[in-house]
Design a protein that fits this description.
By secondary structure, the chain is mainly alpha-helical. Helices cover about 55% and strands about 0% of the residues.
Length: about 170
């Protein structure tokens, strides 16, 4: 008899096979970082940069910025020791319809580093967050558009063209 799947199956995959781990020190890190308030400030700055970027903004045409900020904050809070507040899809499953290349991931990662700095997060505290973020590369980056698929039957693949001038 097959066991029923739960929303936590994806999280188990993320932590067991995705190289993401929650250690007891994570909650101490979350507190040192400044908790939810700091994470939300970082994401407000980060998504301001993403929605303004000539290439990356194309991923968000149909997605309200506040929704993205909220989802990302809850997700990061959950993986940085703030408790299980995120209940959405794990990144691998949430981004199947997005053609994210290494170059796009690098730009996004750089914008996150800038946002952490702009939010006043010290290099010492930004570094573990950025290390954790980098671990998602293998789950999100695709080598060809053929690796993309809609999360549901009628969803279109989002594969923005790189602008000539950025």
């Amino acid at each position: 008899m097959q066991q029923a799947r739960t929303p936590y199956d994806g999280w188990r995959y993320l932590f067991e096979f995705g190289g993401i781990s929650l250690m007891s020190s994570e909650s101490a890190y979350f507190v040192k970082l400044g908790g939810r308030q700091t994470i939300e400030r970082v994401h407000e700055i980060f998504y301001g940069k993403m929605y303004a970027h000539p290439w990356l903004k194309q991923f968000f045409v149909a997605s309200p910025r506040k929704h993205q900020e909220s989802q990302q904050s809850d997700f990061i809070i959950s993986i940085l020791g703030g408790g299980p507040v995120y209940s959405g899809r794990i990144p691998k499953h949430a981004h199947t319809h997005l053609f994210i290349t290494d170059e796009i991931f690098d730009i996004r990662h750089g914008l996150l580093a800038e946002a952490l700095h702009d939010a006043g997060v010290s290099d010492e505290l930004a570094e573990p967050w950025l290390r954790r973020d980098e671990k998602f590369r293998t789950m999100l980056v695709k080598q060809s558009i053929g690796e993309c698929e809609g999360r549901y039957r009628t969803e279109e693949i989002i594969a923005p063209h790189k602008p000539a001038i950025m």
